[in-house]
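tool_call: predict_structure(chain=1)
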Amino acid sequence: MSARTPSTTTAALRVDALPAGMRATRATKALLALVAAQPDMQWSAADVQARLQKMGVDVNRVTTYRLLDRLAAAGRLVKSVDSERLTRYSVPTHAEALHVRYECTDCHQVQALDESADAQIAHAMAQYLQTLQGQGLAPSQSELRLQGLCADCKSGHL
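tool_result:
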């Protein structure tokens, strides 16, 4: 992939494909560049606002929330709430409608699952979604949040 070719992760965040009614403002462009540069990060609105200000983009809290929520509503970001009831935003990792998150109950870090576990969960969830569709329901997005101790915190409890 050349330097000019966007990765599959950042391609979903291109400015020229913004949701209807959303302008390509300096704050929007900076936000898209920020999350595209660290696609594995789980961003809170406060994190985003602080980083944008460090980048020289003066944006208030309300604007930050609006931008994040609009991008999430359009499927450009995934919105989730952690165990501390903090809303976080991330770049979708794949085109599937299922997003699996594992959150440590001690350090609150959100971790990706390995490919094998992710595939098994996705297969089981696909069957579940098919059952829901058989009942006339049409979920457009689903999130599975698993909670427990990460390896680092678990070793500290022994």
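agent: Residues 37 and 158 are 37 Å apart (CA to CA). Proceeding to next step.
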